[in-house]
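[step 3/7] fold_predict: job queued, chain A
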Amino acid sequence: MDEHDDFVVLDLKAVHSSDSVVGQILRYMGYVRENLAEKAGKKVRGIVFTPSYDEQLRLAAREAGIQVLRVRIK
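[step 4/7] structure written:
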C-alpha cells in the first residue's frame, strides 16, 4: 500500500530484465485489481526493481504506466 492507501505491486528481478517483465507484472496487477482493489475502491500501480534493463523494457513499461527502478542486488 502506498501513502494514498492504494495498492502497489512490486516485482523484484535478480538479473537483467527485458519487456517480458511487463506482461508478468500486468498479470499480477490485474489479479490485485480484480480481487482486492475494485472491492475497496482503490487504484493499482506497478514497480519493477531490476539491476539492469534494456530499451524494450523501458518503452513497454512507460507505455503501461509501470515504473522501472534500477537497484543493486547483492
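[step 5/7] annotate
The domain at 7-70 is CATH 3.40.1350.10 (Trna Endonuclease; Chain: A, domain 1).
The chain has a mean pLDDT of 96.
exit 0
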